[in-house]
């Protein structure tokens, strides 16, 4: 059974850092692209970052480029999102998701991901 579980969210001051984890089970992690998405109140869910299958190439939304880093530990079946220099506009529920296509590349469309975690809240506020 495919399962994704996020953790690591919380309350942080502007300029602070958090590391989110996405623990995967039920499939071989590096066979699938894994994306991080976020949804703020009243806004649509948006893609933040993604790590492709096989070569592990990372992708970032322009809004987080240079501040966020995605990585993958195949031995631990976990994908991480290191978030630095956090801003109030980063406040959202963060989700990880598995691309539906085996060995698929990263894409931004939500409907191309077939399994989602429950989300973890990130709040950036002073």
Provide the gyration radius in Å. 13 Å
Order of helices and strands: EEEEEEEEEEE
- State the total count of DSSP E strands: 11
Pick out the low-confidence regions. none
From the helix content, strand content and strand pairing, which structural class follows? mainly beta
Helix count, per DSSP? Answer: 0
Multimeric state: single chain
Mean model confidence by pLDDT: 96
The global form is globular
DSSP helix fraction:
under 10%
- Biggest pleated sheet: 7 strands, mixed
Report how far the terminal alpha carbons are from each other. 40 Å
Tell me the strand percentage band: over 45%
Keywords:
7-stranded mixed β-sheet, globular, 4-stranded antiparallel β-sheet, mainly beta, about 130 residues
Helix-strand blueprint:
Layout: E1 3-7, E2 10-12, E3 18-25, E4 34-39, E5 46-51, E6 58-60, E7 68-73, E8 78-83, E9 92-99, E10 113-116, E11 120-124
Parallel strand pairs: 2-11
Antiparallel strand pairs: 1-3, 3-8, 4-5, 4-9, 5-6, 7-8, 9-10, 9-11
Describe the 3D structure.
By secondary structure, the chain is mainly β. It is 0% helix and 48% strand. The protein has no helices and eleven strands. The protein has strands spanning 3-7, 10-12, 18-25, 34-39, 46-51, 58-60, 68-73, 78-83, 92-99, 113-116, 120-124. The strands form two sheets. Strands 2, 4, 5, 6, 9, 10 and 11 form a seven-stranded mixed β-sheet that branches. A four-stranded antiparallel β-sheet has the order 1-3-8-7, with no helix packed on it. A hairpin with a 6-residue loop joins strand 5 (46-51) and strand 6. The protein starts with a strand and ends with a strand. The mean pLDDT is 96.
